[in-house]
Structure formats: structure tokens, C-alpha cells
Design a protein that fits this description.
Strand content of chain A: 25-35%
Structural class of chain B: alpha+beta
Helix content of chain B: 10-25%
Structural class of chain A: alpha+beta
Mean pLDDT of chain B: 96
Number of domains of chain A: 2
Mean pLDDT of chain A: 97
Distance between the termini of chain B: 25 Å
Strand order of the largest sheet of chain B: 5-8-9-3-2-1-10
Oligomer: heterodimer
Number of strands of chain B: 10
Low-confidence stretches of chain A: none
Largest sheet of chain B: 7 strands, antiparallel
CATH class of the largest domain in chain A: Alpha Beta
Shape of chain A: globular
Largest interface: A-B, 16 and 12 residues
CATH superfamily of the largest domain in chain A: Probable tRNA modification gtpase trme, domain 1
Low-confidence stretches of chain B: none
Number of helices of chain B: 5
CATH class of chain B: Mainly Beta
Distance between the termini of chain A: 45 Å
Helix content of chain A: 10-25%
CATH architecture of the largest domain in chain A: 2-Layer Sandwich
Amino acid sequence: MTKETFLHDKHVQLNAKMVDFAGWHMPVQYTSIIEEHKTVRENVGLFDVSHMGEVFVSGKDALDFLNKIVPQDISKLNYEKAVYCQLPNKNGGLIDDLIIYKLGILEYLVICNASRIDEDLNWMVRNSRGYDVKIDNRSHEFSLLAVQGPKADSLMRKMGLDTHQESFTIKPAKIAGIKVLASRTGYTGEDGYEIMVENLHSEFLWDEILKQGEEFGIKPIGLGARDTLRLEAALHLYGNDLDENTTPIEAGLSWSVPKDKVEDYNGKEVIMGQIANGTSKKLIGLKMLDKSIARHEYEVYFNGEKVGHITSGAPSPMLGANIALAYVKNDKEICTGATVQVMIREKLHDAEVVKRPFIEKRNKVTI
Amino acid sequence: MSITEKILCSKSHEFLLDNGDGTHTIGLTDYAVEQLGDIVFLELPEVGSEFKKGETFATVESVKAASEIYMPVSGKIVEINETAVDAPETLNENAFEWLVKIELTGAAEEQNDLLEYEDYKEELE
């Protein structure tokens, strides 16, 4: 059975094109992916991301438990702060990528990908043996609304939020009189908020944000633009760019993995070994040099040899070029500025290796 | 007579129009274009190439994905819409934009499973 978020009727009323995504009936676009994409880059967009999972981890051993299952050092995570994490298996391959928030001294919130919530829960429960910890999947209780774009801040301030909030922090707050958890995070490369609200109030809040956002040029944004926005910002999509055979180091996520974490964690040996000795594959950004579009699983060639494959690819509405992420063998010559080829419908097309992210991110907010 | 009264449509959402001069025009139905969303890439075959009914002769890409376009009948390509190749958004802007013109190379019976536009629309519902 396909699941529906509490905002499903709103999407249908707005004439969204609906698709199945990770078992959910979700809006892929309301009007046009390109138009919605530009709205988020230039003004502000509203997303329903209620399909994502919210798992509360609490109890005496909550910190030790989380430190065992992620490479990040959760003991350094302060109250009301968030950290981008991965959930590696014993070989360092990724079961999921997560955001972990510290809500209280012994209470954490773990945001999971909709497509991975069952695997994540299984893995967490299996790993919780011997720990005094409560793993509470409360995904069905909350809706998650993302307000993203350069005007997100002004809109939220207008709606009563104290926007003196740094990026990667979460605070209990009120928006339009509704109690929410407001997190200054997102998946677009823009500044913005992700707002957790009880299902009961989600429709009211959705309508109210669209109404109050009119003067800022707000539009509802579907999963199609969500994908092109995150790709321009070179943010990984689980299932495309991350999987159980890929470590955070191979995925170019070394920046997020502490080198000095004392505690043992799943996959630590492999991950630390790769930090010390390097990896056999690496993630690169590509810009197509003609009008062709590289898509998931297309093969990548270098000097006539097959060296890897595309994981995500799409047009970049901001660059006016087609971009992609690819895993290739870790060859020094496949570096920024080098030309590789992508096999598209039995023909090779040139692509330039470019820096990630493809656009300048504007999501870093300090106060 | 409007174009919808003259075209035949395939179940894979191509239309065929008899130009009355020995050639036929092939394009995508309005339904197909709406389903695709923003069209950002179009690849058409070379003039002179020949395809059988049901074969892939062109590729269209939306932001999300690549889709193949199939021959509604067998034919030889005599002209392609270069404007649409250069500006694929033309397909979103103009309903029933043409893709290629062909000379038929198959039997007339090949058109038996094609539907008139009204019937095609009904099948979609």
C-alpha cells in the first residue's frame, strides 16, 4: 500500500503531478521542475518532506549507543545542535546518511531517509544490545515542512519565528501560533528551515506558509526540483550516490568524519584505513561538454578505459549545463579540469571534471 | 479542420499526420508532452535513415529522465525538426510540434492499431 502524508490532499488540490517515491505517493512537480528550482534559488519554496523518518533515541546510554553507530563524535554535539552523520555497516559501507540532533541531555533525534527507515531501525535495534537505550520511531506522528531559499528567513521572521538561529541548530518555536521544532537545515544549498510539526497542524501550517509567503514569491516545490537543487549543491542522495558498498571516504565525505574520535564504531577500521591509505574509487563532479545528459548508471571512460559510472545526473537550471556525479577509479589524472567520456545510448560524450558543489552554497548562517 | 481531427495516435503516445503530399509527420501527443514536463533534450535520427514500426527512432529527455520515441509506422526519414533539436522547450510551448517527416515504407495495415485522437483520449481515462 502506498502511503500518503498528511498534506496529500493539499498536493492534489494544487494539481501536483504525483509519483510513487520510496513507498509514498508524493508530488514530483506542481508546475515545472525548472520554474520550481529557480523559485528556491531566487525567492523561497515550500516542500512537504513528511515521508522522512524521525527516530528518537533516548536513555542512559543514548550517547554511547550513537557513538557506536556513526563515525561522527556525538559527545561533541551540543544541546540544540545538529550534525550530518552516516550509518556505516561493519565494512564501512553506508546503510543510510542521517542528521542527528541533540534535543536534551539524554535525548537525540535522528532524521532518516524515507527509503531506508526500516533498514535503519533494524540496524539500530540489532546494535542496541547491551545498551540502556530507547529507540522510538515516531515518524508517523510528525509532518516535516522545508522552507528553503534566500527569502526563507524573512518569511519565517514574519510568521513569528525568532530567526536568530545558526545553521545546523534546532529550537522549539512557534510559527503562526503553532508549536514546532525549527531546524536551520535543508537539502537545497540555500538557507532555510526544516519544520517539524504534529500532523494535526500540518495542513494549517502549509496553507499559512503559502499565504504569508505570497509577498516573497513562494511556491510549493516537488521532489523533482528537490533532486536538481540538491544535485547542484552536490548533496548526496541515498540509493544513487550512497549505498552499502560505498564508504563515507569514497563518497567524498571525509570532511564529516573526525580523525581523532576515540570510541570504536561500526566500520571504523575500514574508514580509518582509507583515510590513511586512500581509496580505490572516488566521487567526482562532471559537467557535460555537449547537450547530452548523463544519467544514473551510465558508464564513464577515461583514455579509452572504463573507469566508473554515473550516480546522479540532470540539467542544472542555474548553470545552463548538464551536470552529474560519478564514481571513478582513484586515478590522479582524473582530476579537476580533466576530460572524461560518458557512454550515452552507445556513443561517448565528453564531460569535464569540475569541483563540487557545482554552485556556491549559501546555507551557512552564523549570528 | 483542426489537427486533432486529422491525426492518428499510437498507444506509446506518438501521433501520425498524413501531409497529403506523400509524406507523413510524426510527433508526440499533447498527453505525452504533459507527462514529460520540462523537455530539455531531443535527439532525432539522420535524414535518410529507415526504421520499422515500433522501433526507437528518437530520444526525448525531461529534467527527470530519458524516454524513447517509437515509430508508429515503418518509414524513411525525409526531414527532421532542427529547431526543436536546438530548442527542445519548443515541444512544451507548441502543442503537436512535429519531430520528423517520413515516407511510408510499410503496408497500410500498419495503421490499423492507431487510434483517432478522440478514441486515444478516451483510452487514457
